[in-house]
UniProtKB/TrEMBL annotation:
PANTHER family: HTH-TYPE TRANSCRIPTIONAL REGULATOR YHJB-RELATED. One of its GO terms (biological process) is regulation of DNA-templated transcription. PROSITE patterns: HTH_LUXR_1 (PS00622), HTH_LUXR_2 (PS50043). GO terms for molecular function: DNA binding. Residues 142-207 form the HTH luxR-type domain. Pfam families: GerE. This is Response regulator protein VraR. It comes from Roseovarius aestuarii.
Length: 208
């Protein structure tokens, strides 16, 4: 019995909000293929939790920890814990992070609105060694209207209009400067411009 338990991947749940970790952890604890490990809210506790895992590890990662955002957390995991499998979970309003997660090599992604149905299937696939992107997310990635600005992109544009720097925008929104640059690149593509001034002009004129 002990051998069987030891072979089950340990799932670390990481998010800046403990209540989110607890909610996801409650779901994970009912999935027989895995065992629930520690919760982490920052990079230090995530490192500590992963270091303590003897066998296989799966990290269920929210889009922000208390001291970093998704891009920074994924970079740390890939650099220092490359053997850990990673599932990124995000709200429907944070879909840009799903694209980031896939581009950054996450093993799977899951929308919070689909988590009750999707997460058990995802973890089952990861246990078998398979990465998976749920069908509903693939459809959204391929069919979404790339010309439509997201809520976050509107927020960033409104701050650009007020002449805030990338650093000031990152501080205001709780994002890294790299993430702000990622959003700006997407905004420029959608507005068909190549500068902050061009983006501001189109946004102020309502041409988006």
């Amino acid at each position: 019995m002990q051998d069987r338990i030891g072979s089950e991947p340990e799932v670390i749940v990481a998010d800046r909000q403990v209540i989110v970790c607890q909610g996801i952890g409650s779901l994970v604890s009912g999935i027989p293929e895995v065992k629930l490990g520690s919760f982490a809210t920052d990079q230090a506790s995530l490192r500590k939790a992963l270091t303590a895992v003897d066998g296989k590890a799966i990290v269920i990662l929210g889009v922000r920890l208390t001291d970093c955002d998704l891009t920074q957390a994924l970079a740390m995991l890939q650099k220092d814990f490359s053997r850990a499998m990673v599932v990124v979970v995000a709200e429907d309003t944070e879909f840009a992070f799903i694209r980031t997660a896939i581009k950054s090599g996450a093993n799977s992604v899951c929308m919070m609105s689909q988590i009750l149905v999707s997460l058990p299937k995802i973890l089952g696939k990861l246990v078998d060694g398979h990465s998976i992107v749920p069908t509903e997310i693939l459809k959204r990635l391929t069919n979404e209207n790339t010309d439509t600005l997201t809520r976050r992109e509107h927020e960033i544009l409104s701050l650009l209009v007020n002449d805030l720097t990338n650093f000031q925008i990152s501080a205001r929104l709780g994002l890294s400067e790299n993430t702000v640059k990622y959003y700006l690149k997407a905004i420029y593509q959608k507005l068909d411009v190549n500068s902050r001034g061009g983006a501001i002009a189109k946004y102020v004129a309502g041409n988006y």
